[in-house]
Amino acid sequence: MHRRRVPPVVRRLRALPNPRLTGLGAGLFATASMLFFAFLDALLFGAEPVVYGVLFLPVSAVTALWVRPADLVTAPIIAPIAFAVGALPISGGAGGFGGHVMALVTTLAVHAGWLYGGTLVAGLIATVRKVREMGRRQLARDLAATRVATRVGAGPRGRPAPTRTGRTPAPRSGATASRAVRQGPRG
Question: For the residues 126-131, what does the mean pLDDT come to?
Answer without folding.
Answer: 94
